[in-house]
Amino acid sequence: MSDLKKQYGDEYPTAVMMDGIRLPLRRDRRFSRSYHSDEHKMGSEISRFMDGSASITALELQREWPSWTDDMRSDFCQSSCWLHEQPDFPEMLRFIMQHGEPEHWSGIALSVASQLPRAEAFDTLVRALRSTELGRSSNISQAIAHTKHSEAEATLRRHLEALWSHPSLWEDDDFLNWVGFEVTTCIAHLIELGAPPSDFTVQVRRLSEHVCSANRDSCRNFLSEHYSWLS
After folding, report:
1. 3-state DSSP helix/strand/coil % of the chain, to nearest 5
2. pTM of the full structure
3. Sign of CA pseudo-dihedral 47, 220, 157, 148
4. What is the pLDDT of residues 133-173, one digit of tens each?
5. 46 and 65 together in one domain
6. Across the beta sheet with 32-37, what order do the strands follow?
7. Which one, of 144, 119, 117, 118, lies nearest residue 130 by Cα?
8. Does any domain span residue 73?
9. Domain count of the chain?
């Protein structure tokens, strides 16, 4: 707790300091706490597994999961990465990948990549990718890249082709075109795997001119280090 007070301020857990801004506690869930400042329109989610105020075992998860609301399931999945040192955490991940839904898989995808054996993690994540709606699987694509599996690049290149032909790719949106966002992140993950940026110059130029301003911004944020003309 003392380390968290150093990180988030002396008021933790009733409030946290982020970039010099005080965020009061907005919602206290079983597995996480939500902080938000209406004045600064800024918020943060902090896992309760960080300070030990929440705990669970694989057996408890398996027993309780059927009775949890979808909100509780998502709360657990988004907060669970802090269980990475718990010996039965891989068992929890396997259970959720078998019994959960795409939104739950997205929340634990990076943990699957880091906690399960490489071949098992890759196969599990590829199955999840195939079962998740295009535009909603960016975290899963990222996790596939993190496995560093020998087939990860080929898998993500095929995924990029599917995204690029999606009929809603170039539609405007008041917030963000999610298919366009996933194209951007998929290209970033492919480059992280060692694919040459020149392979995607045409796509990146098109993304940089997307009708949705948020997509133009995300293109610069994710890819400007690889394409100097984006800056």
Report:
1. 60, 10, 30
2. 0.91
3. negative
4. 999 999 999 999 999 999 999 999 999 999 999 999 999 99
5. no
6. 15-18, 21-28, 32-37, 42-47
7. 144
8. yes
9. 3
